[in-house]
From TrEMBL:
Residues 18-248 form the ABC transporter domain. It comes from Actinokineospora guangxiensis. Keywords: ATP-binding, Nucleotide-binding, Transport. SMART domains: AAA. This is ABC transporter ATP-binding protein. It comes from the Bacteria.
């Protein structure tokens, strides 16, 4: 399957699925995101950065879990700053947190159904949407098994299924490949590219090779601010033989971060 290029990441009903200007997000007493400008449209966007860069805080804010502490933020064309009713906007979101909670006695199907219900999907649409989501993550044969009987990688795939069950326009995945084995990661990248053909998909990861293989563009953050936004090829071009890394893209990453990782 073909990677969607940045140039094709065309505006749809609104200019950008995510449009942040001077965004600030507080995590505890820290300003984890501090003056971030970001515009993301359709396609798969890799979010990279060293530990503590602010990736999780940014994703939690885009998912409307954390309120912006400053700046401007539009999600799916709606201004979320100072807005109290975010339910309509949330119906268009899919979110896989880094550590997601689930009730271990639920089967995969019950878990995804429950999340579809929380997302206020029409009841008649839920069974079909759940079956499709479970099939897309390769768990159809385990759909009626309890979550407590699944491996860590399968539980993560169930987490991805709940994130995509409502065909979100904005899909936020925080470290989705954690716990997936190499074969599952390759299949997951194919799924990402499929999802990115009609949604804005933001994937936070430490795995630079996932970005190179599946993302149309890369957003690199450090200390809560944007360091770089461009294609994986542009990121690779920023590095040279004197920079740390096993691949061109890793060398570009370390060149842009200096001594930050
Ligand atoms: N609840 C909290 N209380 C205090 N500080 C926090 C809290 N959550 C995050 N932080 C701090 O905010 C900064 C950004 O954290 P965040 O988890 O967003 O980074 P990250 O890029 O996702 O890191 P990692 O790659 O390690 O997951 C870090 O310095 C972190 O220690």
């Amino acid at each position: 399957m073909r990677v969607v290029q940045a140039a094709e990441v065309a505006p749809t009903k609104y200019a950008w699925q995510v449009h942040a200007r001077g965004l600030r997000v507080r995590a505890g007493r820290r300003m984890a995101v501090d003056g971030l400008d970001l515009r993301l449209g359709r396609g798969v966007h890799g979010l990279l950065g060293p530990n503590g860069a602010g990736k999780t805080s940014l994703i939690r804010c885009l998912a409307s879990v954390l309120r912006p502490a400053g700046g401007e933020l539009e999600i799916l064309g709606q201004d979320v700053v100072g807005r109290s009713d975010l339910r309509a906007m949330r119906r268009g979101l899919g979110y896989l947190p880094q550590d997601f909670g689930y009730y271990k006695r639920f089967t995969v199907r019950e878990f995804v159904e429950y999340m579809a219900w929380l997302k206020e999907m029409p009841g008649r649409d839920i069974p079909g949407a759940v079956q499709r989501a479970v099939e897309r993550v390769g768990l159809a044969d385990r759909a009626d098994d309890r979550l407590k009987t699944l491996s860590g990688g399968m539980v993560r795939r169930a987490g991805i299924a709940q994130a995509i069950v409502n065909d979100p326009e904005l899909l936020l995945l925080d470290e989705p490949t954690t716990g997936l084995d190499p074969g599952q990661r390759v299949r997951f990248r194919e799924l990402l590219q499929d999802l990115g053909s009609d949604a804005c998909v933001v994937v936070s990861t430490h795995l630079v090779e996932d970005v190179a293989a599946a993302c149309a563009d890369v957003t690199l953050v450090a200390a809560g601010a944007l360091v770089f936004q461009g294609t994986p090829a542009e990121l690779a071009a920023a590095g040279g033989s004197g920079h740390v890394g096993d691949s061109p893209i890793e060398r570009g990453y370390s060149a842009l971060l200096g001594g930050a990782w």
